[in-house]
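Title: Comparing notes on inverse folding

I've been comparing how different people in this forum approach sequence design from structure. To keep things fair, I'm posting one structure and asking everyone to reply with a full sequence. Here's the target:
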């Protein structure tokens, strides 16, 4: 281990921007608002926040730490660390599953990102300006019904992703996030201001923050946890791959808290930018994945400056998607690169697989839904569970302590407790709950 010339981020902030760029994506702006709408608002948000804090943050620290300790891509990191700990090499499969998982996510992710690009084009050219609600929903239906139109944008999106990855870690990913992320923050704040001035802000806030636990279904809890993993980019080694390039001297804990806080705040702010506009136009937030592509454009079409802010919004979404998708293939590309495949060719291979899978998602909506459902709700939490067990129980405590670099022993203790007990038990409980077994056990016990 540690023999390869270390590639590294320019500084600590580049790592924070890259990891935040990975975390903040379609998950925050497209998915979080619509699942919050579907699963009833406040109570869902509360469960989601609990999952972020109790499960997501500890697992994220574990991923960054493992990547940095091994200074390698997730496959070789898991292999190397398990060898050091005297554990079976089968742990390498966790890294491999991550590489595959990233490609599976890229498949449906690039389709939605393609829709966002299409909407950038449409809003800049004024297609839905002053259109009726009906014609805007027809427009979305015709986009999702048109193979060539979706395919064009999806291809462009995958090509952009590949271009950044092929340019390398420092010059590609690092430079891209240094430009994209500040833009994203500024655009989001502008949209929040717009929504505050033009939307029904109070109703938006009530909807997001007033918990009604009666609406919290079994499935909602599973979805909340799955989303916590999805939004923080956990469970498949993306953050581990980025951690491998993190300079050695900084505290992992503080860095991770910063990233998780930024991701969470951005999801909440995205909700606060979207829901008030939706409510102000008498629309319902529970309209599923179309929330962003139908309800929101209807809202923009009816509001002062809607074209400008609508364009801004879809540019923002595209930026967020791009800075995330690069982290979906970096683990695989870094793995291939370490085994002698030129970065350019590794990127090409990964991009082609993602692109072909995306093409399949365009053909078949049920393949799209299947990939979304199994990656977010099963593969990522399961990957997170295994990583928590590995770092919490298998790796030597001393190695972990040194690599995590907590300054305060109390924080280290808190983290290990969360990682060894809270995260694994929490993930298992949510799984059992979602398939109804938890209720059965409780009835048996009573
Ligand atoms: N976190 C991103 C989002 O919220 C998606 C994403 C990027 C991701 N990289 C990942 C999800 C790795 C899981 C694993 O849109």
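Reply #1:
Here's my take.
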């Amino acid at each position: 281990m540690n023999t390869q010339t270390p590639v590294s981020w320019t500084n600590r902030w580049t790592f924070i921007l890259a990891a935040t760029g990975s975390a903040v994506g379609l998950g925050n702006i497209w998915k979080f608002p619509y699942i919050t709408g579907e699963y009833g608002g406040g109570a869902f948000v509360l469960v989601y926040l609990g999952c972020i804090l109790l499960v997501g943050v500890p697992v994220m620290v574990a991923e960054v730490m493992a990547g940095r300790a091994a200074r390698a891509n997730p496959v070789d990191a898991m292999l190397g660390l398990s060898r050091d700990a005297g554990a079976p090499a089968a742990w390498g499969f966790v890294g491999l599953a991550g590489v595959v998982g990233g490609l599976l996510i890229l498949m449906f992710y690039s389709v939605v990102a393609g829709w966002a690009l299409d909407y950038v084009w449409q809003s800049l050219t004024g297609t839905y300006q002053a259109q009726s609600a009906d014609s805007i929903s027809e427009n979305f239906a015709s986009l999702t019904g048109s193979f060539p139109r979706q395919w064009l944008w999806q291809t462009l999106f995958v090509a952009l992703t590949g271009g950044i990855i092929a340019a390398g870690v420092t010059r590609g990913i690092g430079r891209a996030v240094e430009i994209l992320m500040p833009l994203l923050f500024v655009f989001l704040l502008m949209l929040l201001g717009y929504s505050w001035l033009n939307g029904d802000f109070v109703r938006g806030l009530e909807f997001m923050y007033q918990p009604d636990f009666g609406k919290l279904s079994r499935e909602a809890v599973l979805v909340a946890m799955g989303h916590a993993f999805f939004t923080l980019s956990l469970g498949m080694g993306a953050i581990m791959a980025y951690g491998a390039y993190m300079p050695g001297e900084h505290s992992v804990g503080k860095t991770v808290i910063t990233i998780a806080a930024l991701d969470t705040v951005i999801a909440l702010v995205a909700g606060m930018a979207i829901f008030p506009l939706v409510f102000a136009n008498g629309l319902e937030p529970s309209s599923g994945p179309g929330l962003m592509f139908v309800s929101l454009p209807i809202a923009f079409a009816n509001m002062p400056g809607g074209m400008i802010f609508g364009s801004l919004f879809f540019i923002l979404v595209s930026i967020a998607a791009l800075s995330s998708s690069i982290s979906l293939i970096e683990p695989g590309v870094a793995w291939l690169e370490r085994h002698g495949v030129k970065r350019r060719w590794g990127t090409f291979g990964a991009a082609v697989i993602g692109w072909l899978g995306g093409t399949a998602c365009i053909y078949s909506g049920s393949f799209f839904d299947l990939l979304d459902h199994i990656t977010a709700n099963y593969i990522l939490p399961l990957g997170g569970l295994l990583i928590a067990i590995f770092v919490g129980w298998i790796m030597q405590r001393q190695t972990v302590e040194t690599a995590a670099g907590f300054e305060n022993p109390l924080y280290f203790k808190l983290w290990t407790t969360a990682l060894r007990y809270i995260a694994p038990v929490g993930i298992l409980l949510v799984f059992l709950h979602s398939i109804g077994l938890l209720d059965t056990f409780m009835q048996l016990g009573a």
